[in-house]
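re: that chain from earlier
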Amino acid sequence: MAARPETARKILLYWMDGSMALVAVISVAFVAGRTMAGAITTAHAALVITCQLGLCGLFPFVMREAFDRRPRPGWKLMVSGVFATGTVLLRPPAFNGASPVIEMGLLWLSAAALYLSLRATACLAAVVVALFTVYATLVHGQSWLNTLVGTAVNAFVMVTAMLLWRWLWWMIRDAHHSREARARLAVAEERLRFARDLHDLLGHSLSVITLKSELAAKLATKDPGRALAEMAEVRGLAADSLAEVQQAVHGYQALDLDQELAGVRAALEAAGARCVVRARPEDLSPPARALLAWVVREGGTNVLKHSAATYCAITIDGGVLEMRNDGVPQAASRPGSGLRGLAERLVAAGGTLSAATTADGEFLLRATVPVGGELPAREVVPA
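^ sequence. v structure.
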């Protein structure tokens, strides 16, 4: 899922709040209509409406308490249950089993399901359905079979819908956390690989340098000629180690464009975003390809970490690279340190880098590099 979890959470909760407001309006209008028809007294209607508004007013708070986790039932759930019971018991006799007043009692049952296990929810639902059926049969003279079937079906549908509502939010949240975990894992693996390579390169050389330095120190007064030879070897080992480190660092800096394109596409598709790559980099020099590889890596990282993209298109035509995605970040107008460092690197090589929101609502990262020839020697490492 590419949706931001907090945005998805607000949408789900606000949708439920709007639904509850609609239920409250319909139920109050229903009771008001029966009052105007003379089916119930004004005092009776006032009690029913009070219970209805109390249930609808507490329902959003009950929902928010149980949306992120399954807490223990608290006073809000209990008080809303009292309002739901009062709404059902005080309903006008003229109402039939399809009354929205009955549905409000089942709505409380669906909210209680967020606090209970599946077994406890099933037991509570059976008790509520049985009590509703007995009450409607004895007090209002309704058919017990029709009431039982209708109430049971409505209870099942409303409880299932509420549990699926919360499950959808949990899926969005877990998908976002999984994407962040993959990004952290990739960084940790890269650090571990770099640390392992440095250890392999320097561990043996530094150990030998240490031993030979100690030996040269001991021989300085006894055999100056041999001490000088040992120090010459130490200098040679140090020079070789420095060359190996420089070669290793250069290997990390010289990225492969094709590998970066494949890696970014795989990472985006794993995060739920469709990625299309159209690349024709055949005319580019190796330094230019390396520069564009850095752009692809930084751009892909930004899409994963800072956007809600469901689609990303990467196009390379000659010395121009464009990355478009439909998940525009909130702070798109302020590039981060990674893009700033990358822009410095491209400018030093005679290229350009821009990142901005387009007129059609997409986010465009555009980089240009010289097509052929050698790039300037100045080296600026991306932040």
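Residues 113 and 121 are 5 Å apart (CA to CA).
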